[in-house]
Amino acid sequence: MPDRVTQDRKSFTVEQANAVLPLVRAITADIVELSGNIVERRQRLNLLRADRRSDVNDAYSDELAQVDRDLEADRSRLYEFAAELRELGVELKDAVGGLVDFPTMIDGRPAYLCWKVSEAEVAHWHECDAGFAGRKPLAPVEVGT
Asked: Rounded mean pLDDT of 67-74?
C-alpha cells in the first residue's frame, strides 16, 4: 500500500516533465546562480571573521553584520525558488548542482525522473531511495504506469 506522501504527490510522465522543463530550467538556473553566490560569499565572510577578534566593535563589524543580513535575504530567496518548484510538483535535490526530480511511476512503482540544469531534456530516472548515483536512462522502462 502506498504511503500518504506517495499518494499526495503529483506524478509526471516524461512528456509532462519535458513540457514544464522551460519553466523548471529558468527557476533552477536562478537557484544555481544564487546558491553559488551565497556559498562563495559565506566562505569569504568566514575567512574575514576567522582573522578578527570577536570582541572588536568597529566600522567593519557593521559591514559584516550587513553582509550577514544580505546573505539571509538571499537564503530566503532560495527558499522561495524551491517553493516555486514544489508548487509545480518538482523536488529540488541539489541547489548548487541544479538537480531536480519529477515524481513518477515506473513499472507500476513510485520513482523519480531525474534532470540536471545542464541537460537538454529529462532522460533519466532513479528509484526513490537510489538518488543521483542510481540514475538510469529512460529508454527501457514504462513511465507513468
From this structure: 92
